[in-house]
Amino acid sequence: MLERGEVANSWRHERWDSFRLLTPNWQSRLPGHRYEGPDPDGYMTMAEVTAFIEGFAARSGAPVRTGADVTSVRRAGDGYQVTTGGGEFRCRSVVIASGACNVPVVPPFAGAVPGSVEQLTPFDYRGPAQLPDGGVLVVGASATGVQLAAELRRSGRPVTLSVGEHVRLPRTYRGRDVLWWMDASGVWDQRFDEIDDLTRARRLPSPQLIGTDERTTLDLNALTSMGVEPVGRLAAVRDGRALFSGGLRNVFSLADLKMERLLDTFDAWAREHGRDGEVGPPERFAPTRAPERARLQLDLRGGEIRTIVWATGFRPDYGWLDVPVVDEKGRLRHEGGVVDSPGLYALGLPVLRRRRSTFIHGIESDAREVIDHLATVTLAQRPGA
Amino acid sequence: MTTVANGVNVQALLDAREALKGAPEAAQFVWRASSKWQDGVHSTTRVKEFFGLGQEQEHKSEAVFDADHPEVFAAQDNGITPIEYLLIGLASCLTAGVASVAQNRGIQLRSVEAALEGKHDIRGILGVDSDVRNGFNDIKVTFTIDADASRQDIEALVAQSQKRSAVFDALTNPTDVTVEVA
């Protein structure tokens, strides 16, 4: 196992200070290793996640080589040549587990933002104190965007939140964590080969959730109640002005409808499986409140906005992968983790084999199936094996 | 699903979607219109040819549109005002979307009607107040749909049709427009 930094590197170095897992503690489970603390319904801090993964590394005896930054993987004979900062490896098979969030995505028009406005990505952001006083434009309303918008608003700054398509979820539903429902009802078990539009499922933004002791919901209604001003999707920066889409109401409708459909699914599951008795009564949530008149533009030279936080997603970085298996959008071409090159595999990507693939507890079943392929197909073909 | 007949060939659209995944150049269309000044603020615009799927194409017949201003603008009213054409584009685009999405989702439509209102402060175009914009301040579309579906499913049809609408996008997002003299 080659690790570019230390065990749990991205948790240590690529998250902001207040970051907590979106999944409740009891869902943090790896083979033979699970949360054993006093608060199964809580959400791990970064230090706790790091300790959890270190604990698993120790317990499993995984042969981790830290500080081994991979700079190249290329096809060599019937296997691969792997170049790292600490030496060369030859191997029959490679499992890519470098994740989907290596680089923050920033739209090209970020270059047109006036120099007087500071720009940050979630990788740069640690906490409100590092920002200048004054207004903040947070672009993007997935989990990262809503969490940073709330934290920055609480620091006393005026916050404008640019909202495109998003996934709205309540933190709890019928008295249970909404992710308990995703787990128990089988939504997360849906397999990649059962999903109609897999490309879309793999591109789904992270849900508007936050892990707090109070288990509060952080949807757009919660944010507007705090004084965050929603605007449409940022469409362009032109002549020093940020131009927002006038389609805000429709992204609200789409998210409200999708959430209702999901809650209907949960209710039907509870009814059909005789689980109504162990949860509270069905709930429905108020539609997302649209502002009377959402602003369509903001003058970025006027001083109202001092900082832009680009919470516009992440992408994987395959710059080191010298095998032609990356598509024109920079995504790995694979079928359920079996990459389109003999002996090359992937793990830990969105909906790799199931909807739960990118969650900590999602790795176990994916890994078993991918490794089964590796053992029965790749290694079985080995000369003399 | 086979019993639903909204008259949209969804299979052809789904096939096109698959085919164009590997052929982005064939997906590049150019829509054209050519206009001619008549008199006063009256003009006539003709639409026939367009480019797409890698070659020149044309409509079965040429369409001719007169635009003018109403008599309250001291004009001849030989046709609707140009900004009203935007409402036509939006209404027909969203309606086409509703029909297509309904067909794809197996929802039989019985009637789809839309009422559109575009709020327009004409002090902008008259130069009365430079803080007033020239275009619509806002547009409201109200659909009345009779279909074999729940209200939630009908709302989802309308939401999805906006999500995939060319004209909705063109109106809600900025577009780079170049106007030059030949």
From TrEMBL, chain A:
<dbReference type="InterPro" id="IPR036188">
    <property type="entry name" value="FAD/NAD-bd_sf"/>
</dbReference>
<protein>
    <submittedName>
        <fullName>Putative flavoprotein involved in K+ transport</fullName>
    </submittedName>
</protein>
<dbReference type="GO" id="GO:0004497">
    <property type="term" value="F:monooxygenase activity"/>
</dbReference>
<dbReference type="InterPro" id="IPR050982">
    <property type="entry name" value="Auxin_biosynth/cation_transpt"/>
</dbReference>
<keyword id="KW-0560">Oxidoreductase</keyword>
<dbReference type="GO" id="GO:0050660">
    <property type="term" value="F:flavin adenine dinucleotide binding"/>
</dbReference>
<dbReference type="Pfam" id="PF13738">
    <property type="entry name" value="Pyr_redox_3"/>
</dbReference>
TrEMBL record, chain B:
<dbReference type="InterPro" id="IPR015946">
    <property type="entry name" value="KH_dom-like_a/b"/>
</dbReference>
<dbReference type="InterPro" id="IPR036102">
    <property type="entry name" value="OsmC/Ohrsf"/>
</dbReference>
<protein>
    <submittedName>
        <fullName>Putative OsmC-like protein</fullName>
    </submittedName>
</protein>
<dbReference type="Pfam" id="PF02566">
    <property type="entry name" value="OsmC"/>
</dbReference>
<dbReference type="InterPro" id="IPR052924">
    <property type="entry name" value="OsmC/Ohr_hydroprdx_reductase"/>
</dbReference>
<dbReference type="InterPro" id="IPR003718">
    <property type="entry name" value="OsmC/Ohr_fam"/>
</dbReference>
